[in-house]
Amino acid sequence: MEKTIAIIASLDTKEAEVAFVKEMIEKQGCKTFIIDVGAKGSESIVPHIRAEDVARAAGREWDSIYDIPKHEMIVGLLEGIAVLMPELYAQGNFDAVLSLGGAQNTTIGVSAMKSLPVGLPKLMVSTIACGQRTFESFVDTKDITLMPSIADISGINNLTRTILSNAAAAIAGMAKHAGVPLKSGQELIVGATLMGVTNTGVAEAVKLMEKAGFQVISFHSTGVGGRAMEEFINEGTIGAVMDLSLHEITSEMFGKGFSTGANNRLTAACNAGIPQVVAPGGVDFIDFYAKELPQDLNKRKHIYHNSNIVHVKLLEQEIVRVGEIITERLNKSRGPVTVIIPLRGLRQNTSPGEALYTPEVDNALIEVLHRGLRRDIKIVDVDANINDEIFSKTAAAELLRMLEQQNME
Amino acid sequence: MEKTIAIIASLDTKEAEVAFVKEMIEKQGCKTFIIDVGAKGSESIVPHIRAEDVARAAGREWDSIYDIPKHEMIVGLLEGIAVLMPELYAQGNFDAVLSLGGAQNTTIGVSAMKSLPVGLPKLMVSTIACGQRTFESFVDTKDITLMPSIADISGINNLTRTILSNAAAAIAGMAKHAGVPLKSGQELIVGATLMGVTNTGVAEAVKLMEKAGFQVISFHSTGVGGRAMEEFINEGTIGAVMDLSLHEITSEMFGKGFSTGANNRLTAACNAGIPQVVAPGGVDFIDFYAKELPQDLNKRKHIYHNSNIVHVKLLEQEIVRVGEIITERLNKSRGPVTVIIPLRGLRQNTSPGEALYTPEVDNALIEVLHRGLRRDIKIVDVDANINDEIFSKTAAAELLRMLEQQNME
């Protein structure tokens, strides 16, 4: 069946560019569905959705958005597009989304894309996908593909023709030959969290689950992955977890560092009541950028992870607070939970003689968990490091046991 | 003709994923050309280029890279891939590049992509295109498209299948239906620099050039654009410039702020000897992130550009230094130069009564330019703001005059 590409752009300034990509996309056998997010409309292109309609989706009843202050207009369009896109998609108006523009249009374009399911093709051609900007504000936890435009997108010249041709071909290719949104299916999918310093242990547990016939998706708990996993839990795509790297909780507590960005971790699985095997992997350190090291660094054990990032061991009172957060959140769980505690280190480099070996800190955490966790939460102490084989085996065995029990009920 | 996609990946850890995208790409009628950048090779896939061959391109004669320290190996592969890719491309081995992987593979993949011409399709599927990372280190000034993988790329599960299917379809679509590398053609292309606060004046000058029949590509001089333009000059794609926004020179002098990243501006056009119309647009302020404002802010005029960025007016001694840099660089020019000086403000918000109105600072710059520029460099003082019509007209008229003169010679 013919596929349709939604094009989100400001027709008042990007009329020629939209006409160009529209023609390119149609040449490749797809249809287009045009959403105008510019204030002043266009002479030659009649959009399927006008900017006023977008704003109206957010409850703004403007006859014309021409006279609204620019800031207010952008807020209206941002709110509106996030509401409108899932509706338009559910009605079958498009199979993929392309957007192109500068700062304002990029903000609106990615807001639209974030509201749509993973797997649905999303391509943002942006003048500002370069330089010092971070991915955070564009991508969030979604599969938003970004194509830097290099130059201003103003008129069709040799450079914009080259870039926009590639963009049109890429989005049409995805819509025609791939672009199947990820769905919560019948099959149970297991989510797992890992990071470089817990990778050995978690990856081995993942392999054991796969050998037992389960599909596992692994997420890096370095500021985005944990959040992405929790969204998949909320959507029902992931039905059980091996949440073995809670490092993002430490980052949340500090509010800064390399792995910030995933707040309120552990809540989705607890709310959903799905089986959870949890371990405090990587909660014993914070990853600071080398340029923003804490002032009391001389009091702290630390190790350079690479030239940009320093891993700094927590102090006792800090890890106690982390433990309290974990306890508080897990105690709200509606489903079965097993907490596995590796007694000989929560990450790499924590064995005797290694840079982050600090048993008194780890023990402070272990005590908080033992004391605070609800009685019906099973705790398994493993006399090993998180990257040791016995840890991986215990984690997989516990989850398999829970899933079996769930099946029997 | 059948198109070929180069796939850059570490076969030791990404064998299954490479096999998957290879099959998807071939289904769409393209061939693949596999470049292994992993240390340990693969059992089932024989690459066209082995990691040892990549390292050898950088002069490293390793029989096996299995026993080399990891850091040394990565440096060898990074250097090698940048040398090897243009050679392989020139020999006709591929028409597009796809790469997939984590931190190490992403570094190598984008290094390969940076070495290839704009327009040749480039798609990086990366676990680290998310969170706090900046575009700078991935994209540079090239059209490198980035697809975040959301989860770890480890094995084929529902999520990786979805992401990698889209990636394969996008790169095949680009290779088949677009993907024409930008070339330095017969036609003269004019480069122009602008930014938000000089946009009105420069955009009008661009329109006048277009009316006169010239193709113009505009670049945002906010840290990347100016550098991209200079690369196009070096490659011979751009043959004349309206370099009317030199703000990046101020950022270079301060070494920080939002627009850092384009160093040694003005040098490419001077070396190439192409016609230049230059104006000190936007050199009178630095755009600081709100969190890193200068300590003596109370002495300085400033204005919030948005909630993240503050535009801070330079002090007199600072703009004098900027003027000296401009003078020094332009005085090395091998071709014709006209400098246009807008006497009533180098950007928005500099008219009497506005936030950045500071004639004594602007005048200090004007004096340095008048005093220091080589006698054969034409200076045109315009009694207007850079965003006034007379400025745009003067800039376009000067460049048209130079191009006419060049034609007559």
UniProtKB/TrEMBL annotation, chains A, B:
PANTHER family: UPF0261 DOMAIN PROTEIN (AFU_ORTHOLOGUE AFUA_1G10120). It comes from the Bacteria. This is Uncharacterized protein. Residues 3-177, 189-402 form the UPF0261 domain. Transmembrane segments: none annotated. The lineage of its organism: Bacteria, Bacillati, Bacillota, Clostridia, Eubacteriales. InterPro entries: Tobamovirus_resist_UPF0261 (IPR051353), UPF0261 (IPR008322), UPF0261_C (IPR056778), UPF0261_N (IPR044122).
